[in-house]
Amino acid sequence: MDAVVFDWDGTLVDSLPAITRANAEVMRSYGIPFDADVYRQAYSPDWQSMYERLGIPSAEVHEAGLRWLDAYRRDVVEPAAMPGAEAALDRLAAAGLRLGLVTAGEREVVENQLETTGLGRFLAVRVCGGDMPESKPHPAPLRKALQELGIDAAPGRTIYVGDALDDMRMARTAGARGVGILSMMGTREELLHAGASEVADSVAAWVDAFLGPP
Fold it and tell me: Partner of 156 at 20 to 30 A CA spacing, among 4, 75, 172, 189?
C-alpha cells in the first residue's frame, strides 16, 4: 500500500455526539421528533440527502444546514482526537505511507479541529465538504485526494478508513480498500456489507494490526 486516507468525524476525532446533538436540534426546529434508530439509518456524510430522508422539505435543506452549523458552533466543548489516533498516524507516516483526509465536514470547522487536536501535521492533503459538487458516497472526493497525493493512477494501493457506510461505498467505487471503524454509525455487519474489507474497533487498533505491535 502507498497511502492511507481517513474520514474525520467518528474516525479520527470524537465529534459524533456533538454532531448528533446539533442534528437533533435541527430536526426539532422543524417539528420532527428525534429517533436514534431512524437517524442512524438515514445518516450520510451527504447531509443534504440525509435531511430529506429525515423529513425536512428539500426547499428547506440549505436553511437546515445553516441551523446545524449554528447549533454545532454553540456546542462549546471542542472534540478531542480519538484515543491513540495521533500515535497511529505517526506510525503510518514513519512507515513511509502518504496520508490524507476526505471528510464531509465543513472546511472551517475541520481546519480548526485539525489544529486543536494536533493531527493536522500528518494530513496535508485535505478534501472537505463543499470542496467539490459531489459528496460521499460518490468517489470524486477520494479521487481528488489521490490526485493530490500523486497516486490517482493506482487507487488499489490506497486504504480509506472511515466509520460510515457511505465511507465504505465510496472506497469500493473508487477502487480503494475500505477499512471500517466501529461507531454509532454502523455495525460490523453493516460496514462489511457496504464494502469494508475489514472492520476494527478504532484507528489505533487497526494500525496495530496493519503494522504490527509498536
Answer: 189
